[in-house]
Amino acid sequence: MGSAWKNSRYVQLAAAMVRTGILGYGGGPSVIPLIRYEAVSRYGWLKDEEFGEVLAVANALPGPIATKIAAYLGYREKGWAGAAVATIAHILPSSAAMLLLMSIVQLLSKSAVVRGMIAAVVPVIAVMIGMMAYEFGQRAVKGLGWAGGAAAFALTFLLLEVVPIHPAIVIALFLGYGAVHFRAAERLRARLDRSRRRKEGNA
Fold first, then answer.
1. Does residue 3 surpass a pLDDT of 60?
2. What is the pTM of this model?
3. Dist. CA 79–CA 76, nearest whole Å
């Protein structure tokens, strides 16, 4: 009975989202590596490639990114009930902590100890985000090649930092390109396969 309870998908969703809600200090971007670990590594709900696609779509939509991903994971696993469980479990720890600490937040903000704790956490968050970005970059290079990956990175930097264009528009553009690229690659592989089979048949 205990094992069945632990293996319940609702329990897993709630436990995973509570953990990310408690440990995700620093806002949405800092929570993403934690959610990725729960969804990909711990429970295997998604593959890395799928998580990257979900992250891209969530970035393009309005609202807190971590909450959107939590709701998607819950809906994917258990429909609307799962989405409700995952969303509530994710926001509950931070909401409770905010309510409990609101009365003493001014006092804590003046504490040298608390300032030191915050300063110590910032590099950890930066490293976690950097590692996730590196892994996504590896997959981009694997799919597009070094030249294509470098060109995509340079174009993204140009659109976001030089033009600049809203990140949601950039994400939508690259999603569209990815769909076209995938179809073109599939057609090219199919043609090459047919050509190879013809050559083998003639031989």
1. no
2. 0.56
3. 6
